[in-house]
Design brief:
alpha+beta, 13-stranded antiparallel β-sheet, 6 helices, DUF1365 domain-containing protein, DUF1365
Amino acid sequence: MELFYLLCSILSNYLSSLSLSLLLLFRLLLRWKCSSRPASSSSALNDETVSLYEGTVWHERRRPVHHSFRYPVRYALFDLDLAPQAPPDHLSADRARHVAATTGPVLLLTIPPSVGYEQNPLSLYYCYDIEGPAQCLKKCIAEVTNTPWGERVSFVFDPNSDLVAKPLHVSPFMDMHGTWSIRANAPGYNLFVTISVQHPELGDYFTATLKAKRLHSSLVSDHDMFFWLMPHKVAVWIYWQAVMLWWKNVSFIQHPRCTKPAYREEALIRDHKLNRCPVIRSDNDEHLQVDGNDRGSSPDRSCEIRQFTWREAKWPWS
């Protein structure tokens, strides 16, 4: 049944994206015919609110079989305090500052939707603190979304280096026992994000890296065309690599919501152990955190209590 839903979803997205692509082409032809001036961006983006990046995503799996691939990507980096229309379904600047406990600007790195479709395995918020006349990158917020379910988990991490207990079933070819080691730089002309997976049995067996360079604004005349079908390409690469892993006989792992419904609580407990944090309190299934007053204990002052926020799967997976 899930395979049927997946095929229906792919067909629906294909038809809607095809229709919107034809409208985009018609609009560009109309603009070219009616004006001799160079085409300008038709979106709400401009040089003050967004920077455009082009780069490469690279994945390498070393065990139980070796499998690696890379593909080109295009990202937008929004200044959420200045952007009049940042991509929907993301945090505002004020909300991100509240979550990260920072005081400065907030930048969002993401792939904007294109012709009605969005695909973002990872979006990052760069949260700065104001220290005197300067600004420094203090925290990052990761938004990790899995395919095809559309579930999402958000959490704060230290961009210099951080260990995070895996909180989301991101791939049917990975179990939930890994720990993510994450690093990211402050985006400038270059940006990078690297995630490696430490596993109790397989060791350091997987690495994913994004490396990108900022493009000069004069090189991009129309942002809609710059990102045209970018989310679709990411989805195709994800599904194709899943087929390749299946072909290599990598074990298929069922979603833990079917086999271990408490996987979120277990991930939270493992994460607090990584950071030597104490007692767990569960408010509800989507918002779990530490309560230092339980059992008369209080958190270690050197411990930064991480909070995961989950979003449920979208229809038809919900």
